[in-house]
Write a structure and sequence with these properties.
It contains 16 helices and 13 strands. The chain has 378 residues and is an alpha/beta fold. It is elongated, with a radius of gyration of 21 Å.
Protein backbone atom coordinates (compact mmCIF):
# COMPACT_ATOMS: atom_id res chain seq x y z
CA UNK A 1 0.00 0.00 0.00
CA UNK A 2 1.35 3.44 -0.98
CA UNK A 3 0.36 6.33 1.29
CA UNK A 4 1.06 10.01 0.60
CA UNK A 5 1.15 11.93 3.89
CA UNK A 6 0.31 15.61 3.31
CA UNK A 7 1.47 18.27 5.78
CA UNK A 8 2.30 21.98 5.81
CA UNK A 9 4.96 22.10 8.52
CA UNK A 10 6.43 25.15 10.28
CA UNK A 11 8.80 23.17 12.51
CA UNK A 12 9.17 19.79 14.16
CA UNK A 13 6.54 19.70 16.90
CA UNK A 14 4.10 17.06 18.14
CA UNK A 15 2.25 16.38 14.89
CA UNK A 16 5.51 16.18 12.94
CA UNK A 17 7.01 13.70 15.41
CA UNK A 18 3.87 11.57 15.24
CA UNK A 19 4.11 11.54 11.46
CA UNK A 20 7.80 10.66 11.35
CA UNK A 21 7.30 7.80 13.82
CA UNK A 22 4.24 6.58 11.92
CA UNK A 23 6.08 6.53 8.59
CA UNK A 24 8.99 4.58 10.06
CA UNK A 25 6.66 1.96 11.52
CA UNK A 26 4.71 1.76 8.25
CA UNK A 27 7.91 1.02 6.34
CA UNK A 28 8.74 -1.76 8.78
CA UNK A 29 5.22 -3.17 8.30
CA UNK A 30 5.74 -3.34 4.52
CA UNK A 31 3.78 -0.22 3.53
CA UNK A 32 5.23 2.45 1.24
CA UNK A 33 4.75 5.89 2.86
CA UNK A 34 5.86 9.17 1.25
CA UNK A 35 6.02 12.55 2.98
CA UNK A 36 4.20 15.15 0.88
CA UNK A 37 5.61 18.40 2.27
CA UNK A 38 3.83 21.64 1.34
CA UNK A 39 5.78 24.89 1.43
CA UNK A 40 5.82 28.44 0.11
CA UNK A 41 7.52 29.18 -3.20
CA UNK A 42 10.38 30.92 -1.41
CA UNK A 43 10.80 28.27 1.28
CA UNK A 44 14.20 26.60 1.37
CA UNK A 45 14.36 23.02 2.59
CA UNK A 46 11.92 22.66 5.48
CA UNK A 47 13.15 21.17 8.82
CA UNK A 48 10.67 18.29 8.57
CA UNK A 49 11.98 17.41 5.10
CA UNK A 50 15.56 17.44 6.36
CA UNK A 51 14.69 15.18 9.31
CA UNK A 52 12.66 12.79 7.15
CA UNK A 53 15.53 12.41 4.70
CA UNK A 54 17.97 11.93 7.57
CA UNK A 55 15.80 9.02 8.72
CA UNK A 56 15.82 7.52 5.22
CA UNK A 57 12.16 8.34 4.51
CA UNK A 58 10.85 9.30 1.06
CA UNK A 59 10.00 12.98 0.55
CA UNK A 60 8.02 14.79 -2.16
CA UNK A 61 8.18 18.61 -2.04
CA UNK A 62 5.23 20.73 -3.17
CA UNK A 63 5.93 24.46 -3.35
CA UNK A 64 3.06 26.86 -4.00
CA UNK A 65 1.74 30.31 -3.11
CA UNK A 66 0.01 30.66 0.24
CA UNK A 67 -3.76 30.48 0.51
CA UNK A 68 -6.07 28.22 -1.46
CA UNK A 69 -4.24 27.04 -4.58
CA UNK A 70 -6.18 24.97 -7.12
CA UNK A 71 -3.14 24.41 -9.34
CA UNK A 72 -1.23 23.18 -6.26
CA UNK A 73 -4.06 20.78 -5.44
CA UNK A 74 -4.05 19.35 -8.96
CA UNK A 75 -0.25 19.06 -8.93
CA UNK A 76 -0.44 16.89 -5.79
CA UNK A 77 -3.12 14.73 -7.39
CA UNK A 78 -1.13 14.30 -10.62
CA UNK A 79 1.93 13.28 -8.60
CA UNK A 80 -0.15 10.77 -6.62
CA UNK A 81 -1.67 9.23 -9.74
CA UNK A 82 1.74 8.93 -11.44
CA UNK A 83 3.16 7.32 -8.30
CA UNK A 84 0.17 4.95 -8.01
CA UNK A 85 -0.67 6.24 -4.53
CA UNK A 86 -3.49 4.27 -2.86
CA UNK A 87 -4.42 6.77 -0.15
CA UNK A 88 -3.93 10.39 0.90
CA UNK A 89 -3.38 10.98 4.61
CA UNK A 90 -3.69 14.65 5.55
CA UNK A 91 -2.17 16.07 8.73
CA UNK A 92 -3.59 19.58 9.01
CA UNK A 93 -5.95 22.13 7.54
CA UNK A 94 -3.81 22.86 4.45
CA UNK A 95 -4.02 19.29 3.18
CA UNK A 96 -7.69 19.07 4.12
CA UNK A 97 -8.51 22.17 2.09
CA UNK A 98 -6.29 21.42 -0.92
CA UNK A 99 -7.58 17.87 -1.35
CA UNK A 100 -10.96 17.95 0.38
CA UNK A 101 -12.13 20.80 -1.87
CA UNK A 102 -11.68 18.64 -4.97
CA UNK A 103 -14.58 16.49 -6.17
CA UNK A 104 -14.05 12.74 -6.12
CA UNK A 105 -13.80 12.56 -9.93
CA UNK A 106 -10.80 14.90 -9.89
CA UNK A 107 -9.13 13.59 -6.74
CA UNK A 108 -9.48 9.94 -7.81
CA UNK A 109 -7.89 8.74 -4.55
CA UNK A 110 -9.48 8.43 -1.08
CA UNK A 111 -8.30 10.70 1.72
CA UNK A 112 -8.30 10.52 5.49
CA UNK A 113 -7.43 13.36 7.86
CA UNK A 114 -5.97 13.27 11.37
CA UNK A 115 -7.02 16.00 13.81
CA UNK A 116 -3.78 16.29 15.77
CA UNK A 117 -4.68 19.19 17.99
CA UNK A 118 -5.79 22.80 18.09
CA UNK A 119 -4.03 26.17 17.95
CA UNK A 120 -5.61 29.34 19.29
CA UNK A 121 -7.26 31.36 16.53
CA UNK A 122 -8.40 35.00 16.51
CA UNK A 123 -11.81 35.48 14.94
CA UNK A 124 -12.04 37.40 11.67
CA UNK A 125 -8.45 36.61 10.74
CA UNK A 126 -6.91 34.78 7.78
CA UNK A 127 -6.29 31.67 9.92
CA UNK A 128 -9.87 31.83 11.21
CA UNK A 129 -11.15 31.82 7.62
CA UNK A 130 -8.95 28.82 6.82
CA UNK A 131 -10.32 27.10 9.92
CA UNK A 132 -13.89 27.66 8.69
CA UNK A 133 -12.97 26.34 5.23
CA UNK A 134 -11.25 23.36 6.84
CA UNK A 135 -14.45 22.35 8.62
CA UNK A 136 -16.37 22.56 5.35
CA UNK A 137 -13.80 20.46 3.46
CA UNK A 138 -13.79 17.79 6.16
CA UNK A 139 -17.32 16.95 5.01
CA UNK A 140 -15.83 15.73 1.73
CA UNK A 141 -13.09 13.61 3.28
CA UNK A 142 -13.54 9.85 3.47
CA UNK A 143 -12.61 9.45 7.14
CA UNK A 144 -11.51 11.65 10.04
CA UNK A 145 -9.16 10.31 12.70
CA UNK A 146 -9.16 11.76 16.19
CA UNK A 147 -6.19 11.17 18.51
CA UNK A 148 -8.50 10.97 21.53
CA UNK A 149 -12.12 10.03 22.11
CA UNK A 150 -12.52 13.26 24.11
CA UNK A 151 -13.75 16.30 22.17
CA UNK A 152 -11.24 19.15 22.42
CA UNK A 153 -10.58 22.63 21.12
CA UNK A 154 -12.81 23.61 18.23
CA UNK A 155 -13.54 19.97 17.38
CA UNK A 156 -16.78 19.52 19.31
CA UNK A 157 -19.47 16.92 18.76
CA UNK A 158 -21.60 19.27 16.64
CA UNK A 159 -18.83 19.78 14.10
CA UNK A 160 -17.91 16.09 13.99
CA UNK A 161 -21.52 14.90 13.74
CA UNK A 162 -22.14 13.05 10.49
CA UNK A 163 -18.46 12.49 9.72
CA UNK A 164 -16.97 9.02 9.46
CA UNK A 165 -14.65 9.14 12.46
CA UNK A 166 -12.11 6.81 14.04
CA UNK A 167 -9.94 7.13 17.13
CA UNK A 168 -6.24 6.31 16.87
CA UNK A 169 -4.26 7.34 19.93
CA UNK A 170 -0.75 8.67 19.37
CA UNK A 171 2.22 6.48 20.08
CA UNK A 172 5.98 6.87 20.32
CA UNK A 173 8.95 4.53 19.88
CA UNK A 174 11.31 3.52 22.67
CA UNK A 175 13.25 6.74 23.30
CA UNK A 176 17.04 7.01 23.72
CA UNK A 177 17.47 9.35 26.70
CA UNK A 178 21.07 10.45 26.06
CA UNK A 179 21.89 12.95 28.81
CA UNK A 180 25.58 12.95 27.84
CA UNK A 181 24.59 14.35 24.44
CA UNK A 182 22.70 17.21 26.14
CA UNK A 183 25.72 17.93 28.36
CA UNK A 184 27.95 18.21 25.29
CA UNK A 185 25.56 20.28 23.17
CA UNK A 186 23.95 22.53 25.79
CA UNK A 187 26.17 22.96 28.87
CA UNK A 188 24.47 26.27 29.81
CA UNK A 189 21.08 24.61 30.31
CA UNK A 190 22.66 21.70 32.17
CA UNK A 191 24.45 24.10 34.51
CA UNK A 192 21.21 26.06 35.04
CA UNK A 193 19.55 22.83 36.26
CA UNK A 194 22.33 21.84 38.65
CA UNK A 195 21.53 21.36 42.36
CA UNK A 196 17.98 22.79 42.26
CA UNK A 197 14.44 21.48 41.91
CA UNK A 198 13.75 21.81 38.17
CA UNK A 199 10.29 22.25 36.63
CA UNK A 200 10.36 21.40 32.93
CA UNK A 201 7.93 22.08 30.11
CA UNK A 202 8.15 21.41 26.37
CA UNK A 203 5.87 22.94 23.77
CA UNK A 204 5.15 25.80 21.43
CA UNK A 205 5.04 29.22 23.09
CA UNK A 206 1.46 29.97 22.14
CA UNK A 207 -1.63 30.93 24.10
CA UNK A 208 -3.27 27.50 24.24
CA UNK A 209 -0.18 25.93 25.87
CA UNK A 210 -0.78 27.87 29.11
CA UNK A 211 2.85 28.87 29.70
CA UNK A 212 1.75 32.19 31.22
CA UNK A 213 0.10 30.18 34.03
CA UNK A 214 3.36 28.30 34.57
CA UNK A 215 5.25 31.61 34.95
CA UNK A 216 2.60 32.78 37.44
CA UNK A 217 2.95 29.50 39.35
CA UNK A 218 6.71 30.00 39.44
CA UNK A 219 6.17 33.45 40.96
CA UNK A 220 4.01 31.89 43.69
CA UNK A 221 6.59 29.18 44.40
CA UNK A 222 9.53 31.59 44.48
CA UNK A 223 7.67 33.72 47.07
CA UNK A 224 8.05 30.77 49.44
CA UNK A 225 11.84 31.22 49.27
CA UNK A 226 12.26 27.67 48.06
CA UNK A 227 14.83 26.87 45.41
CA UNK A 228 12.83 26.28 42.21
CA UNK A 229 13.87 26.81 38.60
CA UNK A 230 11.95 26.25 35.37
CA UNK A 231 13.19 25.27 31.91
CA UNK A 232 10.72 25.90 29.10
CA UNK A 233 11.72 24.38 25.75
CA UNK A 234 10.02 25.68 22.61
CA UNK A 235 9.50 28.72 20.46
CA UNK A 236 6.45 30.70 19.44
CA UNK A 237 4.55 34.00 19.31
CA UNK A 238 4.29 34.41 23.10
CA UNK A 239 8.04 34.62 23.73
CA UNK A 240 8.03 38.44 24.12
CA UNK A 241 5.06 38.37 26.49
CA UNK A 242 6.67 35.65 28.61
CA UNK A 243 9.99 37.49 28.80
CA UNK A 244 8.17 40.63 29.97
CA UNK A 245 6.33 38.61 32.63
CA UNK A 246 9.62 37.18 33.86
CA UNK A 247 11.15 40.66 34.16
CA UNK A 248 8.13 42.11 35.99
CA UNK A 249 8.05 39.27 38.51
CA UNK A 250 11.82 39.06 38.98
CA UNK A 251 12.02 35.54 37.55
CA UNK A 252 14.55 36.07 34.77
CA UNK A 253 17.20 34.23 36.80
CA UNK A 254 14.80 31.41 37.72
CA UNK A 255 13.13 30.67 34.35
CA UNK A 256 15.00 29.74 31.18
CA UNK A 257 13.36 29.96 27.76
CA UNK A 258 15.70 27.80 25.72
CA UNK A 259 13.98 28.23 22.36
CA UNK A 260 13.45 25.29 20.03
CA UNK A 261 15.60 22.23 20.73
CA UNK A 262 15.97 19.23 18.47
CA UNK A 263 15.06 16.00 20.27
CA UNK A 264 13.76 17.99 23.23
CA UNK A 265 12.77 14.75 25.00
CA UNK A 266 16.46 14.20 25.80
CA UNK A 267 16.21 17.06 28.33
CA UNK A 268 13.56 15.23 30.37
CA UNK A 269 16.03 13.47 32.73
CA UNK A 270 17.20 16.94 33.83
CA UNK A 271 13.72 17.71 35.23
CA UNK A 272 12.32 16.83 38.65
CA UNK A 273 8.77 17.34 37.41
CA UNK A 274 7.27 17.81 33.96
CA UNK A 275 4.44 20.32 33.63
CA UNK A 276 1.88 20.57 30.82
CA UNK A 277 -0.39 23.55 31.73
CA UNK A 278 -2.29 23.62 28.42
CA UNK A 279 -5.70 25.22 28.00
CA UNK A 280 -6.52 22.87 25.13
CA UNK A 281 -4.83 19.79 23.64
CA UNK A 282 -5.31 16.73 21.49
CA UNK A 283 -3.08 13.93 22.76
CA UNK A 284 0.32 15.60 23.33
CA UNK A 285 3.44 13.64 22.53
CA UNK A 286 5.31 15.38 25.35
CA UNK A 287 3.12 13.65 27.94
CA UNK A 288 3.97 10.25 26.46
CA UNK A 289 7.66 11.16 26.40
CA UNK A 290 7.60 12.27 30.04
CA UNK A 291 5.81 9.06 31.05
CA UNK A 292 8.40 6.97 29.23
CA UNK A 293 11.18 8.96 30.95
CA UNK A 294 9.71 8.15 34.37
CA UNK A 295 9.31 11.83 35.31
CA UNK A 296 6.51 12.94 37.70
CA UNK A 297 3.86 14.86 35.76
CA UNK A 298 1.53 17.76 36.52
CA UNK A 299 -0.94 18.50 33.72
CA UNK A 300 -4.28 20.06 32.83
CA UNK A 301 -7.02 17.46 32.18
CA UNK A 302 -7.73 18.75 28.66
CA UNK A 303 -8.16 16.77 25.44
CA UNK A 304 -6.77 13.27 25.86
CA UNK A 305 -4.49 14.13 28.79
CA UNK A 306 -6.86 12.91 31.51
CA UNK A 307 -7.44 9.70 29.55
CA UNK A 308 -3.69 9.05 29.17
CA UNK A 309 -3.00 9.75 32.84
CA UNK A 310 -6.02 7.64 33.82
CA UNK A 311 -7.75 10.45 35.70
CA UNK A 312 -4.80 11.05 37.98
CA UNK A 313 -3.39 7.55 38.49
CA UNK A 314 -0.25 8.33 36.49
CA UNK A 315 0.07 12.08 36.99
CA UNK A 316 -1.36 14.98 38.97
CA UNK A 317 -4.22 16.80 37.24
CA UNK A 318 -4.93 20.47 37.89
CA UNK A 319 -7.58 22.87 36.63
CA UNK A 320 -6.42 24.67 33.45
CA UNK A 321 -5.74 28.39 33.84
CA UNK A 322 -5.24 28.08 37.62
CA UNK A 323 -1.69 29.08 38.70
CA UNK A 324 -2.46 28.49 42.39
CA UNK A 325 -3.48 24.87 41.76
CA UNK A 326 -0.43 24.39 39.52
CA UNK A 327 1.93 25.73 42.17
CA UNK A 328 0.26 23.60 44.84
CA UNK A 329 0.63 20.40 42.81
CA UNK A 330 4.30 21.06 42.07
CA UNK A 331 4.98 21.82 45.74
CA UNK A 332 3.18 18.63 46.83
CA UNK A 333 5.30 16.44 44.55
CA UNK A 334 8.47 18.05 45.87
CA UNK A 335 7.43 17.46 49.45
CA UNK A 336 6.36 13.86 48.76
CA UNK A 337 9.13 12.37 46.60
CA UNK A 338 8.23 8.74 47.28
CA UNK A 339 4.64 9.26 46.08
CA UNK A 340 5.91 11.14 43.03
CA UNK A 341 8.42 8.41 42.19
CA UNK A 342 5.87 5.58 42.50
CA UNK A 343 3.35 7.40 40.31
CA UNK A 344 6.02 8.10 37.67
CA UNK A 345 7.13 4.45 37.60
CA UNK A 346 3.55 3.24 37.08
CA UNK A 347 3.13 5.80 34.29
CA UNK A 348 6.30 4.57 32.58
CA UNK A 349 5.21 0.93 32.63
CA UNK A 350 1.78 1.86 31.27
CA UNK A 351 3.13 4.09 28.49
CA UNK A 352 5.58 1.47 27.22
CA UNK A 353 2.73 -1.01 26.72
CA UNK A 354 -0.19 1.19 25.63
CA UNK A 355 1.36 4.06 23.68
CA UNK A 356 3.84 2.49 21.27
CA UNK A 357 4.30 3.74 17.71
CA UNK A 358 3.81 0.18 16.40
CA UNK A 359 0.35 -0.02 17.96
CA UNK A 360 -0.47 3.37 16.43
CA UNK A 361 0.67 2.23 12.97
CA UNK A 362 -1.37 -0.96 13.21
CA UNK A 363 -4.48 0.99 14.17
CA UNK A 364 -3.98 3.35 11.21
CA UNK A 365 -3.58 0.37 8.89
CA UNK A 366 -7.01 -0.87 9.94
CA UNK A 367 -8.47 2.57 9.15
CA UNK A 368 -6.75 2.59 5.74
CA UNK A 369 -8.14 -0.85 4.87
CA UNK A 370 -11.65 0.18 5.89
CA UNK A 371 -11.55 3.36 3.78
CA UNK A 372 -10.13 1.58 0.74
CA UNK A 373 -12.80 -1.15 0.91
CA UNK A 374 -15.55 1.48 1.02
CA UNK A 375 -13.97 3.52 -1.79
CA UNK A 376 -13.76 0.49 -4.10
CA UNK A 377 -17.32 -0.51 -3.28
CA UNK A 378 -18.73 2.83 -4.49
Amino acid sequence: MKVLHIIDSQGIYGAEMVLLNLMREQEQMGLNPILGSIGDLIDPEIPLEIEALRRGLKVARFRMTRGYNLSGSLRIVRFAINQKIDLFHSHGYKGNILLGSLPRRLRKIPIISTLHGWTSIKKISKIWLYDCLDKICLRRIDAVVRVTSVNSGTWNSRILKGLKTFVVENGIPLLPFDVESVIRKDPLTVEFCRNVFVIGSIGRLSEEKGITQLIQAMHLLSAKKEDYKAVIIGEGPQRGKLENMMKRTGLSHRVMLTGYREKAFQYLPLFDVFVLPSITEGLPITILEAMQAGIPIVASPVGGVSQVLRNGQYGTLVEPGNPDALAGAISYLRQNPDTAREMAQRAKEFALVRYSSRRMAEDYHEVYEHVLRNWRAK
